[in-house]
Structures are given as structure tokens and as C-alpha cells.
Amino acid sequence: MDNQQAKQFLSNKLKKLNYRLEEVKIDVRKPHSSDSSEMAQERENDEVIDAIGRKTREEISQVRRALARIEDGTYGLCQQCGQTILDDRLDALPEATLCLSCVQLA
Ligand SMILES: [Zn+2]
User: Fold this and answer.
1) Contacts of 3 (CB under 8 A, 6+ apart)
2) What stretches of the chain adopt beta strand conformation (E)?
3) What is the separation of C-alpha 72 from the centre of its chain, rounded to a whole number of angstroms?
4) Ligand 1 center to residue 87 CA distance, Å?
């Protein structure tokens, strides 16, 4: 896919991830709805946010980085070695920042 398609795809993905993150936050708050909002806030910023929340945040920052790389023209280049990342790999994982050989070395 070209940069325009990648941008489209990544923007959509970012929306979905943000939506999922909101759902996770709501789920975290649900069982404690009787607590003060302050405590809920504390929990929210704490380790209480479950694995899905952490994973989603990671994915969001990955997608944001990929979008930034489309903007600055470095999208599709490996961040490690500077080689072009294969189209097959970008089709499968548009937010990829490393080429396959660097991933295998990592
Ligand atoms: Zn590489």
C-alpha cells in the first residue's frame, strides 16, 4: 500500500484503539462506581489498568509514530538500519518500524 493508504489505515486504527482504550477505562471504573472520583482517578493512573489497557497504549504510540513518519517522509524505512521495509511486511503490519532482519536481531 502507498503512504496515502497507510495513513488512512493508521488513522482508522488509531480511532479504534482510542475507542478501545476508553472502553477499558470505563471497565476499570465500573465495579468501583461508588468510590470517590479522586480514587477512581488514582486507580486509573495506576497499575490497576489491566494488560489490555497497557497493550492498547503501546499500540497507540506505535501507530502515532508511524503516522509521524509518514509526515516526515521516513515511513517505510527501518529505524535501525535505514533499509526500506518490504511492502509485504508493511501490508501485514503498517506500523512496523523495523525491517525483518533487525526484528530478528532484536
Ligand atoms: Zn533494519
Assistant:
1) 70, 75, 76
2) none
3) 18
4) 14
Q: Is 10 exposed, middle or buried (0-12, 13-18, 19+ CB in 10 A)?
A: buried
Is residue 102 within 8 Å of 80, Cβ to Cβ? Answer: yes
CA of 89 from ligand 1 middle (Å) equals 12
Instruction: Evaluate if residue 23 carries a pLDDT over 90.
Output: no
Q: How far apart are CA 106 and CA 100, in angstroms?
A: 10
At 39, which amino acid appears? M
What is the Å distance from ligand 1's center to 101 Cα? 6
Which residue ranges make up each domain of the chain?
3-77
Q: Full-prediction pTM beyond 0.90?
A: no
